[in-house]
Structures are given as structure tokens and as C-alpha cells.
Amino acid sequence: MVAAGFAMLVIFALSFYYSAKRLEKKPTWLLRAAVFGLPLPWIACEAGWFVAEYGRQPWAVGEVLPTHMAASGLTPAEIWTSLILISVLYTIFLIIEVWLMQHFARKGPSSLHTGKYDFETGKATEV
Q1: What's the predicted TM-score (pTM) here?
Q2: Is the pLDDT of residue 126 over 60?
């Protein structure tokens, strides 16, 4: 979990550095690291959960922590309510994300007004 967190931090710091330098082309190795780093948040979350549960188990088995204290006290209704609310929230996030991606993809890179594209300057090249 900690290694994944540090890897994400390093990728972010290097990306920020190269973006701050305003280079036209970013290093290929950094772009590949960013793509391969996409699952790192999920890996960190799952590893953290695993370590927490693995660390709790010896205490429950060794009768230091009573089993009824190690188990959750939530009712089935509370579990279903939280599951439904989280699902609804993430569905809303998904809808907003897809809408934003489509909105800005339709605008195209010329919406940034950088002057790097032919159709921004009026000099259209024939294909």
C-alpha cells in the first residue's frame, strides 16, 4: 500500500515537473509509467484493506479480541442502504465524467487556444 502510494507520488511529481517546464513532448517513459500507474490507487486500497483485516485476525483467533467485538454491528438494512447510496453516487459520478469527456472531446484541442493547430490560425492544410 505504501509502495503504491509512493509510486503515485513520484509519477505525479515527475509529471508536474515536466509540465511546469512546458515541453512540447513529454518523455515516453513517463507517459508509459502514468498509464501503467492507473491501477495503483485500486491496488493501494485493496492492500490497505487486506493488511487491516490480516492484522485483526490473530487478535480474534487468539481470544484477545472477542469475536463479537471483531464483527460489524450493522444491521442488514444499514448495509443495503449504504451499498445503494454508494452505487447511486458512483453512477452519478460516471454520468458526469462521461458527459465531460464527450463535451471536451467534441470541442477538440483547438479549444485550448494555443495557436498550435492549423484551423486555429485560419491556415487549413489540405488532406
Answers
A1: 0.50
A2: no
